[in-house]
Structures are given as structure tokens and as C-alpha cells.
Amino acid sequence: MYKTTTDSAFGAMKFDYGWCKEEDISFFGKTITVEVLAEAEVGQPISDIQRNLYTRFCNEIKTLSATALEALRAYYSENHPFIIMQMDFPGKLPEPDRITDIDLINMVIPKTVFFPQDNLYAILCDSPWEPQEGLAIIICDDAVSIGIQSEVL
After folding, report:
1. pLDDT (tens digit per residue) in 79-117
2. Cα 55 to Cα 31, 61, 77, 78, distances in angstroms
């Protein structure tokens, strides 16, 4: 049986491999179900830093969604040759100057909002651009960057 808690910011959470729950969020113009994960060792509570970052995420999600889309567009443009090498079907990828928001949204699928013990958080995404490691939308202070998931895990 999982240990459970009701956190003042996160609400009902269970301990599996950290404190986690599923939550519906509106991101990239659509409602999706993601896992919310606060990193913790067995017996460790959710930290105040994680609570503050989760509250900020909830309050700024609309702006964050738009900023993340801009960051994904820049990442795609800068890494287009590498992305083509990673993909199983590179002939179907638009050139950077022709990619649309819909193309980006369909190729980057948020799965987890991860709150590590650091002063940042990340939206972990499945993407054919990085099929082995997955992409991460990394939020630190007011900066949004794109990287691979191992940068934050």
C-alpha cells in the first residue's frame, strides 16, 4: 500500500518513487493529464521550495505554455539537423521556417511535471526528436529552456 499525504500546496499525493499524483492541466491549448512528481527519498516530506514552485507553476501555466512553445520553436530551429538524425521518419519533418505551432504540439507531449530538490522544475515530454531520453522543458527563475530529461533527473 502507498503512503499518502495531503500537502498544503499539492493536495492529495501518494509516495511511490517520490510524491506523485495525476492532474489535468491546460497546456499548449488543450487539456492533458500529467503526472505531478515531487522528488523525495523514502520518509522525506515535500519541501517548501517544491511547494513554492508548484504554486508558481499553477499560477503561471498559461504564460508558461506560450513561452515553452517559443522555446521549443527555437530549439527545433537550432537542432534541426540533429533532430533529423534522431527520427525514424525524417522525411516528414518540416523545415524550421515552415513548422507550425500544431506541428510542435503534436511532436512534444507533456507527461510529467517534475519538481526536483533544486530551485527549478521541468515538464518532461515524450518526443520523436529525442526518443531515448525524452525532452524536458526546464523552468528556472524566469528562464525557460529545452533540454533532455537526464539534465534534470
Report:
1. 998 888 877 665 678 899 999 999 999 999 999 999 999
2. 19, 10, 32, 32
Give the distance, in angstroms, between the CA of residue 13 and the centroid of all CA atoms in the same chain: 19
116: left (phi over 0), alpha (psi -120 to 50) or beta: beta
Q: Which element (helix H / strand E) includes 50?
A: helix 48-86
Distance of CA 104 to the CA centre of its chain: 14
Q: Please tell me the distance from the alpha carbon of residue 43 to that of residue 148, in angstroms, as a whole number.
A: 29
Structure confidence at residue 88 (pLDDT): 67
pTM of the model: 0.95
Residue for grid cell 501518494: 14
Closest listed residue to residue 75, CA positions, set 12, 1, 151: 151
Specify the pairing of strand 3-7 against strand 30-38: unpaired
